[in-house]
Amino acid sequence: NRAFNWVLTLLPIPAPGIITIAYMAQGNWYTLQDDGAGIITGSDPSFGSGTVDYTTGATVVTLGALPDAGSQIMYTWGSPIHFEQRTDTVPTAPRWQFAVTNLPILPATLTFSWLAGGVTNTATTNSAGVITGDATGSVDPVTGIGWLIFATLPDRGAQVTLNYEQVLPDDPGAPIESHSGQIEIFGWNSSVPKLTIAAGLDPSTIRMTFPVKDVSSLYQGSFSAAGSADGSITTLPGHLLNAGGNYRYDITPSVIGSYDSVTGDITFTDRLVLEGNLYSQEV
After folding, report:
1. Each residue of 4-40: b (16+ CB within 10 Å) or e?
2. What is the CA radius of gyration of the chain?
3. From first to last of its 283 residues, what are the pLDDT tens digits of the chain?
């Protein structure tokens, strides 16, 4: 360590701006640092100087004094391989999931209130289940499951208050409409299939589940669809697995039919194609 000039290749490759070189001379510690542009200097030019190549990791340093006998030259640095710069990254907003118990609900009556910074914040819901205000989100009026993203997080220990009206049947003793049948999910050669249920239903309360069994046993499982206020029937996010379980087909929402509240008919599109993406996964 009895030398003024030091040549060393740093591995792993150093990240700019975090290299520190310390040495002792005449019982005193002196520190050099890189400036992020490849130049190594001390707080005083007399402490020493040098350069660093951030591509190869090569450093060349000339110390301002001869190090003491038996002392150590200490290099410290970090590598961009082992960390990720998050300074300019916008964090994902925290999402709060909730579940309403008395079902189904009238979505336009659902309101929220909570304290944030000591101030009462509120949010309201429209007839389609979309939540706006001091928080955004959505709710399924049939399942009661929804989520909120707060513009400002609630105060510590604050409670989120929900108020809503439950939809009650005109005839409480009437059975719930339930239908079953078979349709070909990837297309058909005859007439467009229809499923007839009760007329006059609120289309946003319709929920459908389709078991899937491909003739070649390629995919299996089930997917679901839901009605909207405009009568359209749309698939819900989900996935199917192949027989071996090592391929997953993720389903993305797409319109597959419509409900006629006058006739009670659900008419499917001429080809019921599931839109999505195919992934390979470990099993």
Report:
1. eebeeebeebbbeeebebebbbeeeebebbbeeeeeb
2. 33
3. 578 999 999 998 999 999 999 999 999 999 999 999 999 999 999 999 999 999 999 999 999 999 999 899 999 998 877 666 677 777 778 889 999 988 888 888 999 999 999 999 999 998 878 899 999 998 888 788 899 999 999 999 999 999 999 877 666 655 555 444 444 444 444 456 778 888 888 888 788 887 776 545 566 777 788 888 889 998 877 777 766 666 666 677 788 889 999 998 888 875 555 555 555 444 3
